Amino acid sequence: MAKVPSKSLSESDLSRLIEMAWEDRTPFEAIEATFGYSEPQVIQLMRRELKRGSFDLWRERVSGRVTKHIALRSKLVQRAYCPTQYKNK
Question: How far apart are CA 60 and CA 65, in angstroms?
Answer without folding.
Answer: 9
